[in-house]
Amino acid sequence: MSSRAEAIFFYKVEGLYGCFSNFSSHSIVMKSRWWPTTAHYFQAQKFAGTAYAEQIRLAPTPQIATEIGRDPRLPLRRDWEQVKDDVMREAVLHKFATYEDLAKVLLATGEKQIIENNRLDPYWGCGPDGNGKNRLGHILVEVRTILRERVCSSRVIAVY
Ligand SMILES: Nc1nc(O)c(N)c(N[C@@H]2O[C@H](COP(=O)(O)O)[C@@H](O)[C@H]2O)n1
């Protein structure tokens, strides 16, 4: 893995690495439903199986989907803390597996660290002091490894 100085920082949806944001405008189909962004899918899974999940899916923007998903008055599923990383990984993998152009951008980052430059979020992002958990960045690196393995195994099959 590269040094932090060489790391790729992303946050806003504009620019080359904007597609790393869950707010980027790339729809996915998961659980037999169409989701406008991975942010819609992720936030809705907090209330899976309830009408709130559908309300979030239909939210006009990822910002509004996230606002609803973070509403402390809504009944968050009990196991959310245990499953939230898996939900995020599943959504991010699905997005990059769906869009070949995005997969190419991610694979082209090689061995570089990927950091969500979100100063407000010490869990998914780098947090206020830059030492946050950066879970979204780590999940992008995990997805990059999975996609690379898939590309390698498809090349092996093609050689046969
Ligand atoms: N790109 C972007 N813009 C914002 O304004 C954001 N708040 C975020 N945050 C993303 O929200 C997800 C986490 O939601 P919870 O805090 O667990 O409700 C995660 O994808 C963050 O990266 N992103």
Description:
By secondary structure, the protein is mainly alpha-helical. The protein has one domain: YbiA-like (Tetracycline Repressor, domain 2, Orthogonal Bundle), CATH 1.10.357. The chain contains 6 helices and 4 strands, in the order E-E-E-H-H-H-H-H-E-H. It has helices at 38-45, 51-57, 62-69, 80-98, 100-107, 135-159; strands at residues 8-10, 28-30, 33-35, 114-116. Strands 1-4 form a two-stranded parallel sheet. A two-stranded antiparallel sheet has the order 2-3. Helix 1 packs antiparallel against helix 4, helix 4 crosses helix 5 and helix 4 packs across helix 6 (135-159). It starts with 7 loop residues before the first strand and ends with a helix. The mean pLDDT is 95. The ligand Nc1nc(O)c(N)c(N[C@@H]2O[C@H](COP(=O)(O)O)[C@@H](O)[C@H]2O)n1 binds at residues 11, 21-23, 39, 66, 69-70, 116, 118, 121, 124, 136.
Q: Supply the number of structural domains.
A: 1
Low-pLDDT sequence parts: none
State the share of residues found in helices, binned by percent. Answer: 40-55%
Strand segment count: 4
Mean pLDDT metric: 95
Order of strands, widest sheet: 1-4
**Ions, cofactors, ligands: which are bound?**
the ligand Nc1nc(O)c(N)c(N[C@@H]2O[C@H](COP(=O)(O)O)[C@@H](O)[C@H]2O)n1
SSE run: EEEHHHHHEH
**Structural class determined from secondary elements:** mainly alpha
From the spread of the alpha carbons, the general shape counts as globular
The CATH level-2 architecture is identified as: Orthogonal Bundle
Distance between the termini: 32 Å
Summarize the biggest pleated sheet. 2 strands, parallel
- What name goes with the CATH superfamily? YbiA-like
Radius of gyration: 16 Å
- Beta-strand content estimate: 5-15%
Helix count equals 6
CATH topology: Tetracycline Repressor, domain 2
CATH class: Mainly Alpha
